[in-house]
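Fill in residues.
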């Protein structure tokens, strides 16, 4: 059981906020956001900062071959596997200051609080930075945690290239973060990830804490549409084979499929048109589709509906399923601990299923795992205007601390 609210140690919210402000300079944009793509110089700088802070607190540092960083503060019993917290330091292009990094910085603040209050855990406490959660430079997303959990092979991931032809392996070596530790060699007693919600539900309900019970499943598709390039002025409408018109029908189909399968969502987030000229009928279009649903059956139904829509279009369309992540249900005992500690702290809380993918979804396959959400202003994320208040960040870190303390007792 958690301690009573008055006796619970608390993190230093001002210090946590100062870290959020300080780290936003690594890749900071003119509009108050952050562009810190994985394995870039900006990523190297924030990684260096993280390691320096953790070493100053007495942590040991391990870096594995995919660049995941593990900063471990020792516990009383070295025979016990550590409790892990953390998230990721990379961002989307023109992303925000809170996505991912809040969970890492909260972990650093937990260690400071343990030191200041002379609190000794039985387990060690490991703060993790997972490589390439975002997937914005290298695909797929959640790359470091996926290799760590055995969902992807290291050799295959090392060979993945970005749009400029740089491989993951080369990028790791270029910034000096291809470590020596075998991937997956470390084990955890439990993993708890603090994160911003990245959606509007908590704010709309005026709720302070999200008790995350699981993560939606995801399927990614690439669509190639072939038509015939033709002159925009001299080709009659009835004789056109317009690839962009066919693509537009697919975009609308994705929207309608998601609406027919609530609470599923569907997004066409990328489109490339060829030859992309004002006075040429488009001859080719490439689309990238993201579909999500809390159940595998729901994803199956959405994919089947997409395939039917493509077949019914009678256009030259190729669909390729490139990546998927099954829905995840988090550990009930840790979910209960999050709920109990939010209540003990006097915070309003509600259960949510994460609409976004997270590293915790991979780690849930190898150890007891859960997540804690704090509200996102206007539901915005992957956006320079992304914002969670100092108080919201502090509350989430306090729930994280109390949850770790409760797990440590077991």
């Amino acid at each position: 059981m958690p301690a009573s609210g008055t006796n619970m140690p608390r993190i230093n919210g001002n210090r946590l906020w100062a870290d959020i402000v300080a780290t936003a300079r690594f890749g900071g944009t003119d509009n108050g956001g952050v562009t810190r793509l994985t394995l870039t110089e900006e990523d190297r700088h924030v990684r260096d900062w993280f390691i320096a802070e953790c070493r100053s607190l007495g942590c040991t540092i391990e870096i594995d071959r995919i660049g995941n960083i593990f900063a471990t503060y020792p516990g009383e019993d070295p025979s016990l596997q550590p409790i892990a917290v953390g998230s990721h330091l990379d961002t989307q292009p023109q992303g925000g200051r809170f996505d991912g990094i809040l969970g890492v910085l909260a972990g650093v603040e937990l260690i400071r609080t343990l030191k200041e209050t002379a609190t000794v855990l039985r387990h060690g406490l490991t703060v993790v930075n997972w490589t390439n959660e975002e997937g914005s430079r290298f695909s797929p997303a959640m790359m470091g945690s996926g290799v760590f959990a055995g969902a992807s092979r290291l050799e295959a991931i090392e060979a993945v290239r970005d749009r400029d032809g740089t491989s993951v392996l080369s990028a790791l070596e270029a910034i000096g973060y291809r470590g020596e530790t075998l991937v997956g060699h470390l084990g955890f007693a439990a993993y708890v990830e603090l994160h911003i919600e990245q959606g509007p539900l908590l704010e709309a309900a005026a709720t302070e804490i999200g008790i995350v019970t699981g993560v939606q499943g995801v399927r990614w598709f690439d669509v190639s549409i072939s038509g015939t390039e033709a002159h925009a002025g001299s080709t009659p409408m009835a004789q056109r084979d317009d690839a962009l018109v066919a693509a537009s029908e697919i975009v609308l189909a994705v929207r309608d499929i998601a609406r027919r399968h609530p609470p599923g969502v569907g997004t066409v987030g990328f489109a490339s048109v060829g030859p992309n000229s004002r006075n040429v009928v488009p001859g080719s279009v490439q689309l990238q589709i993201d579909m999500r649903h809390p159940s595998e059956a729901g994803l199956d139904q959405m994919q089947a509906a997409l395939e039917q829509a493509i077949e019914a279009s009678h256009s030259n369309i190729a669909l390729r399923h490139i990546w998927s992540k099954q829905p995840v249900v988090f550990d009930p005992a840790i979910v209960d601990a999050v709920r109990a500690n939010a209540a003990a702290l006097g915070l309003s809380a509600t259960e949510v299923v994460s609409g976004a993918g997270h590293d915790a979804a991979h780690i849930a396959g190898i150890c007891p795992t859960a997540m804690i959400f704090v509200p996102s202003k206007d539901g915005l994320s992957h956006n320079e205007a992304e914002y969670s208040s100092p108080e919201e960040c502090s509350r989430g870190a306090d729930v994280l601390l109390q949850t770790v303390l409760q797990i440590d007792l077991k």
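The two ends are 11 Å apart (CA to CA).
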